[in-house]
Amino acid sequence: MQHSDVLDVSAFHRAAFTSVRDVGDLKFICAAPLSHLPCGLRILNAGYRCVVMERWKGRVALVTGASVGIGAAIAKELVRHGMKVMGCARDVEKIQKLAAECQTAGHSGVLVPFKCDLSNEEEILSMFSVIKAQHKGVDVCINNAGLAHPDSLLNGKTSGWRNMLDVNVVALSICTREAYQSMKERNVDDGHIIHINSMSGHRVPPGSSHFYCATKYAVTALTEGLRQELREANTHIRATCISPGLVETEFAARLLKDDPEKAAVVYSKYKPLQAIDVADAVTYVLSAPPHVQIGDVQMRPVEQLV
Ligand SMILES: NC(=O)c1ccc[n+]([C@@H]2O[C@H](COP(=O)([O-])OP(=O)(O)OC[C@H]3O[C@@H](n4cnc5c(N)ncnc54)[C@H](OP(=O)(O)O)[C@@H]3O)[C@@H](O)[C@H]2O)c1
User: Fold this and answer.
1) Mean pLDDT, to the nearest integer, of 272-291?
2) Most ligand 1 atoms within 8 A of CB, residue of 67, 165, 211 to mutate
3) Into which EC class is this enzyme placed (predicted)?
4) Stated pTM of the model
5) What are phi and psi of 291, to 5 degrees?
6) CATH of the structural domain 54-299, one choice from 3.30.420.340, 3.40.50.720, 3.40.710.10, 3.10.450.50
7) Ligand 1 centre distance from Cα of residue 196 (Å)
8) Where are the domains of the chain?
9) Which residue in 162, 178, 198, 60 sits closest to 127, CA to CA?
10) CA diameter of the chain
C-alpha cells in the first residue's frame, strides 16, 4: 500500500475486501483518522489478526498433505506469517517447489519439505525424530492430509476403506499424539492441534463416499475427545477442527480418477470454496486470543445445499 492511499477512500474499500497483508500495512492504516476509513473496522479486524499472528513467528508448525490443495495453501499462509513450516506428503518435489516460491516471494518464514507416506507409522515417527533433532519440536500441528476412495459399503474394496482409515484417522491420531508429546517435553503450553475435518463429518450426503464420511465423523469425535484429554492434562494447548464443504482442489480428480468426466464437473455447478478460504480459517483459529478455544469452523460455499 502506498502512502497516498491513506486519503484514497476507494483504496480502503479495496483493502477492506482483501486483507491487510503485513504489520507494516496495519501501522500505515492506523496512522489515518478513522473518519477516513469507511470500512475501518473490517480492516482493523484483519489487521488485528495480522498482529496477533506475530506471536507464532519463528514457531514450528507441521502441515500434513502440504504438496497440493488445502495443505499447500495453509503451509504458504503460515510461512507468510513467519512460521517455520514442516510440510509433508509423498510428492515431496511439489513441496520443494512451493518452498522455493515462498522464498522468492520474500515471506518471513520458511517451508521445510518432508517426504512421508502417512499410511506408514514408521515414516511418521522418523519424521518427528528429524523435526526434533533439527527444529526442537512441533508447536502447531495441522492434520490436513486426507482422501476419499469411491468404495461403497455394499461393493467397495477393503483396501480402499483401509487406506482412508489409515490416512484420515490413524495417521491424524499418530501425528496428534506425537505433536502433543513434543509440546509436553518442551513445556510448550500454548500449542494448537487443528484437524481439517469436513462437512461430511457432520452429515451423510446421499451418493457420497460413505466410508469417507465415517472417517470424518471420527475426526469430529477425535477433536472433542482431544479437547477433553487436554483439559484433563491441565494444559492450555488447544484442539480445533475446520469443516469445509466443497473446496476446489485435486480431491475430486483423485476420488473419481476412473471417471474423469464426472470429476471435471464437480466444481462447475456453483462457486466452490478455494483452498485459501480454508487457510484463512486456520489463521483465524490460530489468531484467537489464548483463552479462546474454537471447537469447529463449519464453512460451505454459499450456494451449496447439503
Ligand atoms: N476438497 C474438498 O472439497 C474438501 C472438503 C472438505 C474437507 N476436505 C479435506 O481437506 C483435506 C485436504 O484435502 P484437499 O481437498 O486439499 O485434497 P487434495 O488436493 O487431494 O490433497 C490431499 C493431500 O493429502 C496428501 N495425502 C494423501 N494421502 C497421503 C499419504 N498416504 N501420505 C501423505 N500425504 C497424503 C496428498 O499428498 P501426496 O499425494 O503428495 O502424498 C495431498 O497433499 C482432506 O482431509 C480432505 O478430507 C476437502
Assistant:
1) 98
2) 67
3) oxidoreductase
4) 0.89
5) -90, 0
6) 3.40.50.720
7) 9
8) 54-299
9) 178
10) 65
